[in-house]
UniProtKB/TrEMBL annotation:
CDD domains: RabL2 (cd04124). This is Rab-like protein 2A. GO terms for molecular function: GTP binding; GTPase activity. It comes from Petromyzon marinus (Sea lamprey). The keyword Thylakoid does not apply. Belongs to the small GTPase superfamily. Rab family. GO terms for cellular component: cilium. Signal peptide: none annotated. Keywords: GTP-binding, Nucleotide-binding. GO terms for biological process: cilium assembly; microtubule-based movement. SUPFAM superfamilies: P-loop containing nucleoside triphosphate hydrolases.
């Protein structure tokens, strides 16, 4: 914990990346494959949100990356608004072996845009190791939306590192250039005003008691 707190103090930037997609498309496995060099193909039942922390370097700057995983919540076909709060990029995953997970991308994308209209989103076709011929197919959803598209395999690691490195760069670029900055300023001003009012009312109470 102390090491992580030290890292947070030293970091130049901090970003949040969220993973979206149907249950069992391999979101957690992709993150784990990226974070640790080794892959255990076992199913673990998870119910709460999973948060992975990673330290990256982008343009010679230290970036702390929070990668949020649905951890089973996606079975309700909708995520809590707090999941999207302050996210800077989205990794949206489907399973090339299950057509329904591809069809459901439209629903996930619609929900994403309701909460985060502008953040970069990448579309990920996972489990290509089951049949590499699938990479010759056209998956037009990403093209229609103008989004980056990746064929990947959590099982053998194909394109996993590239996918997340690109997503981190997109997240950093978005945070540095987004309109969110003004939202932050407004929030800070509101908090400051509330705190000032709180202090002044306390002082008034104290003076009255005297």
């Amino acid at each position: 914990m102390a090491a992580m707190e030290a890292d947070e103090c030293e970091a130049d930037e901090r970003v949040k990346i969220i993973c979206l997609g149907d249950s069992a498309v391999g979101k957690s496995k992709l993150v784990e494959r990226f974070l640790i060099d080794g892959y255990q193909p076992q199913q673990l039942s998870t119910y709460a949100l999973t948060l992975y922390k990673y330290k990256a370097t982008v343009d010679d700057k230290t970036v702390l990356v929070d990668i949020w995983d649905t951890a089973g919540q996606e079975r309700f076909n909708s995520m809590h608004p707090s999941y999207y709060h302050k996210a800077h990029a989205c990794v949206m995953v489907f399973d090339v072996q299950r057509k329904i997970t591809y069809k459901n991308l439209a629903s996930w994308y619609k929900e994403l845009r309701e909460y985060r209209p502008e953040i970069p989103c990448v579309i990920v076709a996972n489990k290509i190791d089951a049949d590499y011929k699938v990479t010759q197919k056209n998956f037009n959803f990403a093209k229609k939306q103008g989004l980056p598209f990746y064929f990947v395999s959590a099982a053998d690691g194909t394109n996993v590192v590239k996918l997340f490195r690109d997503a981190i760069k997109l997240a950093v670029s978005y945070k540095q250039n987004s309109k969110d900055f003004m939202d932050e300023v407004m929030r800070e001003l509101e908090n400051f005003e509330l705190e000032s009012k709180g202090v002044s009312s306390e002082e008034d109470d104290n003076s009255k008691s005297k």
